[in-house]
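Record passed on here:
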Amino acid sequence: MAKVIFYEKPGCINNTRQKALLQAAGHLVEARNLLTENWTAERLRPFFGDLPVAEWFNPTAPAVQVGEVIPEQVDAATALTLMMANPLLIRRPLLRVGDRYLVGFNPEVVQAWIGLEAASPEQRAIRDHLMQQDLQTCPHNS
């Protein structure tokens, strides 16, 4: 079991599913509002690791959708500045376990990182149902 700090957009359908999947695996989830967090570049940068800067962005953010922000044309420092000013630009969720960080929710990556195995039959049923869902694409844009 891990204690997962889970930065989400409250009300996001997929963030709700992702948290339920983590909880079904026995993890303790501490949800925080990504949009009201007091982000600094130093606090935000570790979540992105070695990912290309374009993958730091939420592709469904309004500023990205209308072409105001073109993630492939932004450097790391500019990306962080934009994200601190407009947290909707940040790809969700952000996860922290101890001193390890992750952006986005790829079930295979999360499984390898902290595990998604459920112990009880009830938890396995929840997990199996959730794993059949698209946990990365915003259902409002599908």
User: Anything to note?
Assistant: DSSP finds six helices and four strands in the chain.
